[in-house]
Amino acid sequence: MSVHLRRRPSERGIALLSVLLLVAVMAIVTTLILDRVNLAVRLAANADAADRARFAALGAEQFAAREIKRQLDLSPARTINVGGWIGQPNVLPIDDGSGAVVTATVRDGGNCFNLNSVVAGQPGDLAARPVGIGQFAGLMQALGVGSDEARGLADALADWIDTDQAAQPAGAEDQYYQQLDMPYRTAGRLLGDKGEIQALRGMTPQLYARLEPWICALPDAILSPINVNTLLPEQAPLIMMLAPGKIPLDRARTMIADRPALGYARIADFWRPLALQSQTFGPEIESQPQIVTRWFELDLVIQQGESRWRQTSLLDAQLTPARIISRRIGEP
Fold it and tell me: Least C-beta-crowded within 10 Å: which of 79, 132, 231, 254?
């Protein structure tokens, strides 16, 4: 005897719905797995591109260090920009099969305001330096910042770096910063990167963007070692900065334009036009400008397909061979 079981239509519908649901779940799981695989592939490709860029940057640093030393050896008594090797972007050769393009720009690393110059002394015993504070305020005013705002930022910078807790007249020490919604303390040490000043009282993103091309954080608390032989015409405010309120912008531009083709042989030659007008600024300021550059900034941009790597290195050319002192990865 045989028994035939007949499914009801409702049961066949449930079975079909179960199959469709299972297929949908499998499709979703498969899509997620493919997304994860694609993400892993992209991450691996990005990591590979970053590694290639990092090694290319290291090679470019060595190449640039040798080229800087070669240029300095050609004129050891004075650093000059004959041929425009300073400030001129150059495409460096690279043959690793990746198709990467390395663009390197060498700049005089001392032609900027050294943020650490607002203090004097040794680590652990840093005190505010009035000359450096005044120069920072003067530079900001030359760039269009109001006098009160400029003085407040300059004093705040000195308080940020110095090792005491006595605020400058327009400055701010720990007492101010610890009252903020997200409290923090002043550094009490030299800056390692110019971006640190974004934590100062009164600093805004707009103001930092205006100041960023003009400032630097050299590893020593020295007055900004401006090289009068490598200054570009558009850097005339750095001459105004040396003696705030005493050197007009037009006069500063003229001092750059009238520079001998092979640069000034002595610092006294640079100051002579002002000395003839009975303008003197004291030995500390008059000895501040340089004719030989010690610090160089190397700006590297490595383009590989859609990937872009930006690195800025600071070189000490006083050492043999020239040595990398610091690196900054990413945009300023």
Answer: 254
Show contacts of 127-132: CB within 8 Å, 24+ apart: 127/162, 127/163, 127/164, 128/158, 128/159, 128/162, 128/168, 129/158, 129/221, 131/223, 131/284, 131/285, 132/158, 132/223
Domain range enclosing 67: 50-109+294-329
CATH of the domain at 197: 1.10.40.60
Same domain, 250 and 270: yes
User: What are the per-10-residue average pLDDT scores of the chain (332 residues)?
Assistant: 54 73 83 81 68 77 88 91 89 72 92 97 94 97 96 97 94 95 95 96 96 96 96 94 93 93 92 87 94 95 82 91 86 64
Cβ atoms within 10 Å of 183's Cβ, excluding its own: 10
Tell me, what amino acid is at 332?
A: P
Measured CA to CA in angstroms, residue 219 lies from 83, 109, 310 at distances of 29, 11, 22
Q: Provide the 3-class DSSP secondary structure of residue 229.
A: coil
CB atoms within 10 A of CB 72: 18
Rounded-to-integer distance, Cα 115 and Cα 110, Å: 11
The whole-model pTM stands at: 0.83
